[in-house]
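Tutorial handout. Part one gives the primary structure; part two gives the three-dimensional structure as tokens.
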Amino acid sequence: MAITVIGTGPAVESLSQRLNWLRAGVLGANDGIVSTAGLVVGVAGATTDSVALLIAGLAGMVAGALSMAGGEYVSVSSQRDSEFAAIRQQQAELHADPEGKLRQLADHYAERGLSQELARQVALELSEHAALDAHAQVFLNLDAEERVSPWAAAQASLLAFLAGSVIPLVAIVFSPLAVRLPLTVASVLAALIVTGLVSARLGGARPTRAIVRNVVVGSLAMGLTYAVGWFVGQQL
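Part two.
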């Protein structure tokens, strides 16, 4: 019985991999918008100094982007390590008891409604072609040859966070003082509507709930940080 060995070469990017870095990108952009907006609005509650706002915003942008990228890298790396460990376990079981694993695969298809004869024939043909891949897909819901890239997810998070951070930072630093806060709030809420819509589309969910959730969270973040900044500014 042939056993497919886990390869070490580069793998072709799959749909799930593309969705992985797209998800990381959308979450990164959303976090960049909310966290930077909360930071600069909070500072704006204490001071109208554009230089102070710019410094605070840039510092928050860089720190947040690096933190987001690092967290995404660690998370995806841990997921990949767990998946590889599960696949290697399947590989070891196939090597130790190929006939038992064949019966296990046949039983799986028989439980799905196939006759015992047909279920064994399907399991036999799949195992002769790629035993490890067949068992990984059926029992682990994994592709034995797929590689989830932590670097791609980290890069997508970092760039998306930076892109999202630019929106509140530019709005609050370069707007006239008289309309600085309302223009920043409007820009942030518009951006959050877009990220909510995109995240809902990627997840196949209704956009209304995701948009409302984004807007509420962003509004609370800006409102609370502005209140804190204003209170601290009054004490100085």
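Part three, for discussion. Confidence is low (pLDDT under 50) at residues 1-13. Helices lie at 15-46, 50-96, 98-111, 116-140, 150-174, 180-203, 207-235.
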